Every structure is written in C-alpha cells, then in structure tokens.
Amino acid sequence: MGIGLIYFCLRYVAADQHPFGERIGRWAFWLYNGGLVLWILLNFFPIGWPQLDAVYEHGLAYARSQEFYDTTLLWQWMRFPGDVVFALGALLMAWDSSSNCDRSSPVSS
Questions:
Q1: Greatest Cα-to-Cα distance within the chain, rounded to the nearest angstrom
Q2: CA distances from residue 88 to 13, 22, 96 in whole angstroms, order as listed
Q3: What is the pLDDT of residues 52-84, one digit of tens each?
Q4: Which residues contact 2 (CB under 8 A, 6 or more apart)?
Q5: Which residue has the higher pLDDT, 106 or 109?
Q6: What are 36-56's pLDDT values in tens digits?
Q7: In whole angstroms, how far apart are CA 61 and each of 43, 49, 64, 66, 67?
Q8: Using the 8-state DSSP alphabet, how is residue 105 labeled?
Q9: pLDDT above 90: percentage of residues in the chain
Q10: Which of 42, 44, 47, 38 is nearest to 72 (CA)?
Q11: What are the φ/ψ torsions at residue 39 (nearest 5 degrees)?
C-alpha cells in the first residue's frame, strides 16, 4: 500500500509539469493485486493450515522451524507466480514514474 501511496502522491505533485496517463497505473494496480491474490491462494493458505495444525500438535517452535518448512517445499515454490506478477506491477509502476518524471521540464521564467 505504501508503494501505491507514493505513486498516487507523485502523480498529483508532478501533474502540472508531467501529466500521468491512467492506463499504465491501472495495469500496475491490477498486477499488484493479482500478485497478492496469487500469494494468498498458492502459498499462504496451503502452508498456513498445516502450519496451524503443527502449532497445535508440536508447538510454535516446530511450526517455525526448518524441519517443518522442509515438508512444504512445493508450496514455497508455488509462491513464485505471485512474485512474478507482483514484480511486473512494480516494474510497470517504476517505469511509468521514471518516464514521466525524467522528461526535461519546461523552463519557467
């Protein structure tokens, strides 16, 4: 949310000199949110429920240990698609911000 807030504020601070288009910002927004949804569906829920069960059966120390995470290796890799989608949103937002703010500003006298 912090990255989105910075992008939102930058759009209005620089709006007089460098107007931002809506299309790229929308794509970045939906890519960020799509990445978060993929994280939740492919990683956090599938690992979270067995981890909660491990807390009740073996205690918190085991559920946070490397021994537990070695049993969930597939689900740790399932986070990767969400990482890629989220990173695409971040790159798109960074490219939009830098391309709009790097333009040479008109000389005001």
A1: 72
A2: 24, 17, 12
A3: 999 999 999 999 999 998 988 898 899 999 999
A4: none
A5: 106
A6: 999 999 999 999 999 999 999
A7: 20, 16, 5, 10, 10
A8: P
A9: 46
A10: 47
A11: -60, -45
Question: Among all chains, which residue has been given the structure tokens 């333009």?
Answer: 103
Q: Following DSSP, what letter does each residue of 36-96 receive, concatenated? A: HHHHIIIIIHHHHHHHHHHHHHH-HHHHTSHHHHGGGHHHHHTTHHHHHHHHHHHHHHHHH
Which two structure tokens, joined as six digits, stand for 75? 């689900």
Decide: 47 and 70 in contact? Cβ < 8 Å: no
- On whether the CB atoms of residues 11 and 25 are closer than 8 A, the answer is yes
- Write down the domain spans for the chain: 2-101
* Residue 107 binned pLDDT confidence (cut-offs 50, 70, 90): very low
